C-alpha cells in the first residue's frame, strides 16, 4: 500500500514538526531583502509569546522546563533500531524535499524549525529556533525572533536569511505540494540577522498560518550555494537538527547519530527527548526477512500492521522467554482514513452510483472474520473514532454551514444520517450486496452484455486495482473476484514498489488502497488531501482526484473557523458530504499501535495522547540490556 512521499517527516517520531507540505509561488524579489520601514504599525496590538495555539491558551507557560510526558533525567546513549520503510524497500536519496528519488526514512531528524509542536496538545507550537514570536490579533503576519546561538551542523549560524532561503527554495524547486501549503503567504523578509517576518495575503484565513510558517524546516543557504537542491543525492546534507547522517547504505540501512555540538539540547522543548545516541533504520527485501531479523535481535523495535501476523506469528522463542515484549498502546488521533480510493480523474467513475456499487462488493464482515481474526472495526468516516465524525442528521453549526449549498447537494445529506457502509452476512459475496450493486448499475445506465457491464454507447467498463503489497493479495483478490461476479471487467495487478510509487505520483490507476492520517486540528492540509488544488498537482495525496466546489468551500470554512467547537462542527459537515460522494471504499481501523520490541528500553510514566512517542521519549535501560546480554539474548 505504497503512498507517495507527500508526507516528508513523521511528526510522531522525528525532529521536525510534520511538513504537511504545500506551497504558493513567491516572487524572487522577496528573497532576503532587509526592510527599511517599520515592521509593525503603531496602531497594532501585538502579542509577544513563547508559543502559539490555533485555539485558546497554551498548556505550557514561558518558564516551563520540560514536557509533562518526558523524563527530564532520562539517560542519553545507546542505539535505537527499527525496520526502515520505503516505496521500493530501499532508498536512493537523502533529499526528502523534492519529488524525485526515494528518500531514506528518518530524514526529519536532520532539521529543526522555528517552532515545534507538543504531543499532548492538538494545536499548539512552541519556540525551538525561535525564542519568541510576535503577531497581531488578526494574525495577518508573524515575526520570529530567533536564538542567536542556533547553528547548523557544520557550525554556521542559523539566520533569518536561511529561513527566507528555505521558504523560497521549497516553493520554487521543492515537492509540488509546497505550492499548496504556502498559497496564503505573501512576503517573507529578513528584518535583521535573527528576525524574520512572514506576511500573509489580504483576506485569507490566518488562524493556522503563523504555526505553518514556524514549521518550515530550516535549510542552510550557504550549503546550497554549491549543491543543486533540485537533485536527489546520497551525499549527507548539512542540517539544522540534533542528528547527522553517520552512515547510509541503500538497500541495507541508514544510521543517524547525535551531533555532539548540537546547540539546542538544553532547551525546554528538547529536555528528555531524543535520548538515543544513534538511530538506525534497517531495510529488508521482504517482510519475512524483516520479521526473522526482529526475532533474532537484528533490530529492536517494530510496529506491526498485519492482523494475521499479529494474531498467529507472535509465538517465537525470544518472546516466550520474555526477551521481546508484545504490546498494544492507544492512539488518541483520528484512526486513519483507510480504504480503496477510486480515481475520479477517469470519466468512467464520474457517476456516484457506479462508485457506490463498487463499494457494496467489498465485504468487510467476511474479511474481518476470515482474514483479520476479528480484530478490526469498519471505517465509515474520514475522521473515524474522533469528535469530527458525522453522526445523525445535521443541526446547529453543521447545518448552518451546509445550508448555502443545499441546491448542490443530495437531499439525503440534510435529511438522513451520513452514509455508512451496510452490514452484510460474513460470506464472501452476500446476495443482497450483489442485488443492490446491480440495481445501482442499472440506474446508472449500464447493461450486462455477455455477463459484463457496458455503458449506453456499448463501451465495456474495465476496472484495474493496483497494489504492491503481497500481504494485501489475500484482501484484494476476493474483492476483485466479487467485482467480476457482479459483472465488472475487473483485474488485480500487483506491481513492484517502485512502479507503485510512480503510478501513485502520476495518478495512473483506477483503484488503489491507501491510508491518510488526518490532523487533530484540520485546516490547511485539507486543500492538498481533498481539495481541487491537490487534485491538479502531481504527487499530492488527493488519491481520489476529488475536485468539487462545495468541498473546496467547506475546506475554507474549516480553515477560517474561530474556535474548536466550530472546527469540529464544520469538519463533520465536510465528512457528511464526502461520505455522500462515494469517493472511496472504506476499509477498517484498529485504534491502537501494535508494538513488539526487545526489553531493553525505559520510558516515561506518561504517554502523550497524540503520539506514539517511542523514539522521541524512550531511552536505553542499561540494566535491562546487560541482563539480556548475560542471558545470551543479544
Descriptive notes:
Helix 8 runs antiparallel to helix 12, helix 10 crosses helix 18 and helix 17 runs antiparallel to helix 18. The two termini are 33 Å apart. It contains 20 helices and 26 strands. Strand 10 and strand 11 form a beta hairpin. With 634 residues, the chain is an alpha+beta fold.
Present the secondary structure layout.
Elements: E1 46-49, E2 51-53, E3 79-83, E4 115-117, E5 124-127, E6 130-136, E7 141-146, H1 160-173, H2 178-181, E8 185-192, E9 195-200, H3 209-214, H4 221-224, E10 243-249, E11 253-258, E12 278-282, H5 287-296, E13 301-303, H6 307-312, H7 317-320, E14 324-330, E15 337-342, H8 352-360, H9 364-370, E16 377-378, H10 396-402, H11 412-415, H12 431-443, E17 447-449, E18 452-454, E19 462-467, H13 473-486, E20 489-494, H14 497-505, E21 511-516, H15 526-529, H16 532-536, H17 549-559, H18 564-581, E22 584-586, E23 588-589, E24 592-598, E25 601-602, H19 614-617, E26 619-620, H20 622-630
Helix pairs in contact: 8-12, 10-18, 17-18
Brief digest:
The protein is 26% helix and 19% strand. The longest helix has 18 residues, at 564-581.
Instruction: Kindly report the spatial arrangement of strands forming the biggest sheet.
Output: 1-6-7-9-8
Tell me, briefly, the overall form.
globular
- In whole angstroms, the N-to-C terminal distance is 33 Å
Main beta-sheet strand count, sense and barrel state: 5 strands, antiparallel
Q: List the total number of helices.
A: 20
